[in-house]
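Example S7 (structure tokens).
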């Protein structure tokens, strides 16, 4: 079926000549480099502030973007070594869709996907708005979310943008359809790897598990999808290498990034046994998200508040 793909490969993979320098490395003095490997102005523009981590890939452009009302992070990733500069946005927000779309244009990228980690409850996704600006952009969400989108992913799927890709891992618990997108493994892929965890794994926390009918089941799902060490690498986040960067959809304390290793040691919820974890999650006493009653129905159909109108855009 067209919109239920096990494997998404959008643009033809073109090999690019290897670069001998990492133009993102701030310690290199550009003018001291021989002219034949000195970056051009546009390379400098793309490379000078493309990273907020020490991930190394001459191909990846990476930006962490923030929406302050819901404390949401949106992530922009692009393969800038590919001639088309294919890009994707993870968890765009309606309020910052104009900003993010303008940034994509300024950087000369071709946005191909607007991807959601799950059906958000605290803000409206920017996916629908972005599609009205560029109808060629495909919306993506997990099949298990039961939301509308152009493409549905399942655990184990790979989402290609140029030579780079994201793997899909199931991380249910906050919602049934929560997934984490992890950068690929391979010589040309970013190192360390990067995990876009949505609300499943937060920095020193995790997503609330009280939205479902049976909270206890969701608490258990959350714990097992994040913590239990097994060989099923499509599922468990803590099986990723310890240096994998953790990029959540929210942070309420000013953190921007963590690592799997750090969360395995310092996460105050996920370092506990299952019974203690259940107790913590049942007693969070978090307020009902302010926008939940509006955001969830909107996000089930791609994010525009006009539900009838957006059904066509998804
Ligand atoms: N006050 C905010 C919602 C805060 C909240 O509930 N955050 C969620 C993720 S967004 S649904 C969560 O899982 N938090 C876990 C935690 O421990 O904070 C609002 O009204 O929107």
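Recovered sequence:
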């Amino acid at each position: 079926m067209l919109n239920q793909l096990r494997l998404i490969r959008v643009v033809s993979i073109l090999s690019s000549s290897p670069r001998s320098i990492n133009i993102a490395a701030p310690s290199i003095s550009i003018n001291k480099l021989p002219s034949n490997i000195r970056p051009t102005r546009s390379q400098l523009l793309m490379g000078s502030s493309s990273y907020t981590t020490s991930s190394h890939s001459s191909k990846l452009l990476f930006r962490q973007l923030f929406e302050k009302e819901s404390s949401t992070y949106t992530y922009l990733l692009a393969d800038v070594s590919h001639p088309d500069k294919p890009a994707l946005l993870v968890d765009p927000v309606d309020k910052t869709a104009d900003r993010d779309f303008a940034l994509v244009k300024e950087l000369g990228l071709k946005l191909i996907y607007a991807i959601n980690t799950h059906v958000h409850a605290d803000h409206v996704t920017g996916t629908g708005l972005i599609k009205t600006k560029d109808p060629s952009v495909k919306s993506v969400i997990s099949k298990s979310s039961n939301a509308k989108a152009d493409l549905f992913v399942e655990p184990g799927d790979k989402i290609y943008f140029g030579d780079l890709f994201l793997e899909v891992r199931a991380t249910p618990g906050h919602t049934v359809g929560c997934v984490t997108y992890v950068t690929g493994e391979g010589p040309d892929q970013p190192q360390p790897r990067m995990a876009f965890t949505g609300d499943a794994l937060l920095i020193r926390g995790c997503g609330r598990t009280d939205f479902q009918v049976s909270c206890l089941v969701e608490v258990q799902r959350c714990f097992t999808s994040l913590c239990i060490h097994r060989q099923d690498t499509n599922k468990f986040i803590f099986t990723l290498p310890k240096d994998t960067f953790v990029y959540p959809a929210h942070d309420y304390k000013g953190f921007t990034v963590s690592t799997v290793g750090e969360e395995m040691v310092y996460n105050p919820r996920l370092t506990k046994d299952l019974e203690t974890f259940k107790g913590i999650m049942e007693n969070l006493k978090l307020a009902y998200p302010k926008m939940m009653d509006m955001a969830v129905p909107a996000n089930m159909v791609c994010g525009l508040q006009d539900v009838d109108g957006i059904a066509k855009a998804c």
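Notes on this example. The first strand starts at residue 60 and ends at 67.
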